[in-house]
Amino acid sequence: MLFNSPLVPARLIARYKRFLFDAELGDGTFITGSCPNTGSMLGLTAPGSRIWLSEHEGGKRKYRHVFELIEADGTTVGVNTGMPNRVAAEAIALGQVSDLGDYTTVRREQNYGRNSRIDLLLTDPLRTTTYVEVKNVHFMRQPGLAEFPDTATARGAKHLEELGDMAEAGYRAVMLFVIQRNDCDRFRICGDLDPVYARAYDRALARGVEVYALKCRVSPTEIAPAGLIPIDEPGIAALHTSIKISAEG
């Protein structure tokens, strides 16, 4: 997925939870812009980091610049949480996620569950309807290992429970983790930062939810799907490992 127009390089001054950031453009101009990421962005907010911004003219936008990418750990990382759904749809259309590309219709943001919306709803007259929940991932503590979540997420646990409901009702339910960074070739659930989510994840697997992790190619010109990567031990196993290491340390 190519960016609609060239991104603007800048230096990060500060990112404010939630929605705003300050930066310095190449010509020395200081700006405030919109940060489309309500999460903690753990490890991705260091002042002075090189960042890239999309630029928007007119309309009802309060801020002209939008925070899209940051340079961290020697690679480029996408921070816009609106991108993974688009990347996921592209990956599915390209046949990169199991056999999900064989469905005739893909609809986005459909109501389901308990006051929720599923990111992608796949339908076909000859196949089982499939619910696809997409999660943005950009957290890394160990080289090559992407993790989710980077903070507690009750909403994320709820989504896993609702996917499990769909699986038990006879539908196909898929959790797709989209990793917006170039340097990860493995993925796991971060059970030590959110044990509740880890338990919800393991329960979802037991109820028949399918789980995939999708790597991306990230650069100032594009964020593109780059195929599935292996998923490490389930959430509770990860939590137990973390507890054991902490006790031995």
Ranges where pLDDT stays below 50 over 5 or more residues in a row are 235-249
The topology string of helices and strands comes to EEEEEEHEEEEEHEEHEEH
Strand content: 35-45%
Overall strand count: 15
Shape: globular
Can you describe this structure?
The structure is a single chain. By secondary structure, the protein is an alpha+beta fold. The protein folds into 2 domains: 68 residues, OB fold (Dihydrolipoamide Acetyltransferase, E2P), CATH 2.40.50.580; 146 residues, Trna Endonuclease, Chain: A, domain 1 (3-Layer(aba) Sandwich), CATH 3.40.1350. Helix content is 21%, strand content 39%. The strands form 3 sheets. A 6-stranded antiparallel β-sheet has the order 3-2-1-4-5-6, with no helix packed on it. Strands 7-8-9-12-14-15 form a 6-stranded mixed β-sheet. Strands 10-11-13 form a 3-stranded mixed β-sheet. A hairpin with a 2-residue loop joins strand 10 and strand 11. Helix 2 runs parallel beside helix 3 and helix 3 packs antiparallel against helix 4. The longest helix has 15 residues. It is globular, with a radius of gyration of 19 Å. The C terminus is likely disordered.
